[in-house]
Fold this sequence. Notes:
The complex is a heterotrimer of chains A (657), B (177) and C (139).
Chain A: H1 2-30, H2 33-36, H3 39-62, H4 69-74, H5 81-86, H6 92-113, H7 119-143, H8 167-196, H9 201-232, H10 243-268, H11 272-295, H12 308-332, H13 347-377, H14 387-407, H15 418-443, H16 448-475, H17 482-488, H18 491-516, E1 518-524, E2 529-532, E3 535-546, E4 551-561, E5 564-569, E6 572-576, E7 581-585, E8 587-589, E9 594-603, E10 609-617, H19 620-638, H20 640-643, H21 649-652
Antiparallel strand pairs in A: 1-10, 2-3, 3-4, 4-5, 4-6, 6-7, 8-9, 9-10
Helix pairs in contact in A: 1-3, 1-7, 3-6, 6-7, 6-8, 7-8, 7-12, 8-9, 8-11, 9-10, 9-19, 10-11, 10-13, 11-12, 13-14, 14-16, 15-16, 16-18, 18-19
Chain B: H1 3-25, E1 45-47, E2 55-57, E3 66-71, H2 76-91, E4 95-101, H3 105-115, E5 121-125, H4 129-133, E6 141-145, E7 151-156, H5 161-174
Parallel strand pairs in B: 3-4, 4-5
Antiparallel strand pairs in B: 1-2, 3-6, 6-7
Chain C: H1 2-18, E1 24-25, H2 30-40, H3 59-73, H4 78-89, H5 104-130
Helix pairs in contact in C: 2-3
Amino acid sequence: MIPAIGELSLILAFIFAIIQGTLPLVGAWRNKTTLMNLAVPTARAQSLLILVSFVVLMYSFYANDFSVLYVASTSNSQLPTMYRLAAVWGGHEGSMLLWVAILSIWTIAVTLFANNLPDTFRIRLIAVMGLVSVGFLAFILFTSNPFDRLIPAALDGRDLNPLLQDPGMVFHPPVLYMGYVGFSVAFAFAIAALLDGRLDNAWARWTRPWTTVAWMFLTLGIAFGSKWAYYELGWGGWWFWDAVENASFMPWLVGTALIHSLAVTEKRGAFKVWTVLLSICAFSLSLLGTFLVRSGVLTSVHAFATDPSRGLFILLYLVIVIGGALLLFALRAPNVGLGEKFDVVSRESFLLANNVVLAVAAGSVLLGTMYPLLIDALGGGKISVGPPYFDAVFVAIMAPGLFLMGLGPLAKWKKASIPEIGTRLKLAAVISIVSALLVPSVLGKISLMAAVGVFMGAWIVSTTLILLQNRIKTKQLANVSLVENLKTIPLAFYGMLLAHLGVGVFVLGVTLVKGYESEQDLRMEVNDIAKIGDLSFIFKGAQKVQGPNYISSQGKFVVTEDDKQIALLYPEKRFYPVQGATMTEADIEPGVFKDLYVSLGEPLEKGAWSVRIYIKPFVQWIWAGCIIMALGGLLALLDKRYRIANKNLTSKAEEVF
Amino acid sequence: MNRTLKFLIPLILFLVAVGFLTKGLFLNPREVPSPLVGKPAPAFTAPILGEAGKQFNSADMKGQVWLLNVWASWCAACRDEHPLLMDMAQTKRIVMHGLAYKDVDADAQQVLIAMGNPYNKVITDTDGKIGIDYGVYGVPETYLIDKAGIIRYKHIGPLTPEILLTKVVPLLKELDV
Amino acid sequence: MKKLMILIFLFMQFFATAYAGEAKPISDDPALEARLKAMSQELRCLVCQNSTLADSDAPLAEDLRKEIRTQMRAGKSDQEIVDYLVARYGDFVRYRPPVNNVTAILWFGPFLLLLVGGFIMYRVLKKQANDGDIQAEDE
Lengths: 657, 177, 139
């Protein structure tokens, strides 16, 4: 009975979404207030209905209702409650429902907080969000209904893939989807602006906070996913350039470019056409990612069970949404005026250069991801494009961008002078070069890659700090303390500093872990000691441990440094009987300077085990960097500029066509 | 360039990508075609199952068109194609040898007793070395080798009547079998 | 003699339990293992197609690692071993696609795009900056 409620509300949501996506658009076009007034109530009704059906599905999981096919195939009565709830998005159908549920959260947010926009613009915005929702609801209802019944009901479920039974599963997908789907708002803003003929500073100003929030979630979502892979897969990698990872990374790169180009459009009215194109691309790449994961065109560890009819359906949807958007772009963009003029050397041109680098970087990831498919479709056979390709090409493309990151923020708007920037950055150059020489020799192995990486990381960090110092110096008020001066700087500026600092920390982390990690495959008997540098890993044997839905062999390791115990590690080898799967659960002692990472291999004779020990220097900096970036986004968002109701902005906005 | 045309570039690029994606939907990304098709079949000598002391030499097959079917008793998909192989054996149209890939002799024999033996001979590849030479990565796999000892066709996965009719039979006609 | 051996063996057994021993590498030839590791990390496992030959637990991956070890011991170069695998499984096994006609766009496309992008950007900047006097502005 209860699952029927979920299905019914999904059908009703579909109907409301159709109304939301069509009539208000007609109303805005024909200037019919009655039709326009439908937008907000239908949007809210649609969203609430989707959330109801989401909660119903969650309840079916909670209550172990195995008369629901999807529950029976992704859950099990033995599964701990937390994972039963997360299993809602553990398969294709439920994760699609999560997709639309998150879209409805964004839709509700738009109806609540985007209320200082001119009426027709706001109506069009909401209608476009409705159109996005229609497609996905149709997809769920016609090809992937999570409420399909199983009669008679199964006695028990087939269980959630043990790989997904992890706290990472609880947080990673919703946060990632918040990011992915959040770009739909920027997309809807762009479409509404193109329809409205209002591509101006005001449009950029309205879009910015929404884009920043989505970008923040996407940054965190990707970081969570990477961290999860790091401890769950048991071989210590944190990024595999897998098709599905790339599918989330491409929107991130384009979204990052978008944040920067929105800044220029808002402040200077320049790059309007480019900004609107990026808004369309960021969401298009999110959609493309959804297609890649669910259609089976590419092989991936994360891929869902696939079905060509689903693939065709999403592809058709892509053609309508992205094709329509790009067609509208082609029709309307030629009429968009140019913004204020600026010199070849200026903050604007640095930001444009940053955009070119980020766009090309996203393009190279797209090319690498799709290339095997292209060659196969052209009859050229099967090839693989993997980490060695991406490591080489992506890093080479990004390097100039990282260097420019240091220069750009110091350049003045409109016209800047390179010698002037040069003088200011002398110190940063010295610091970076010294670090590039010093750090590798301190860590005991000198390599060009490590030196270049350290240089880049130090460059970003030091230029960012100089930027702050410079800002205080040029803007400082006499007779006021430093703290007072710091208080006058807008939060958005601190946000930018922090986000850039995050990139620096990230670059340092990546460089150092790549250059200085070590790995040993050992055969350890009970009480054997593995000496790695100053550290001793003592194996205290393994014992059987009964988990809620698994049996585990749990090893115990004492780690000592100078005869002092610094860590106790309990790596496990778990057996999940329902799916008959064995999982390696590594145990990690994280640290600021290094992680100690131990994973159990296979049991050998006489209580001995094969053991893999990694030392991962600075690996935590990778995720710390991402979190710092996201915090930067948060600060920018809290800037009071966005909190002032900008009601009179509309009068300032220029009509473009 | 015409100003309006310039703004059509993103749309055009997107439509090209859609073309590829549509094509991609009908391709199987997991199936890796063998580079050995069109090349001489790797030569091997290996014991014959159930004929102690006898060796099979692939060179002896020169002048004959034959099928090499890679299978194993532990492979579930092989049982799916087994009835079809039995049907094929009944027609006596073509010589088919089996390669028991990484199998225990007794287990392989047991399957053949229980389900029937469609093979002229079963060659044993206990350590999987012949499999590596033939680029086997997913049993069952079937190779069609011509009179000159060239691999003409390879099928990965269980054979189906459809594959036989559309791929194997036309090739056999071409090879005058 | 035999008795002495047993005695030594028992003695060592006693030591092994009473005192901690130094952990031994799984392989008796760590250098070869490191070379295998570096190499197999750039090779794709054909069975579970999303992991490297180094990380895969599939039986075929184990067989291939064994084969690579044998060839390494026989003095084959990395290139020869990769060629050996490519001859059997095709370019699919290489995570680092070879540079050839088919992959030219893949390897050089991004850099070409960066150059073209940079050039167009410069042209656009130059064109729009040419008219009018532009003054620097503080934010």
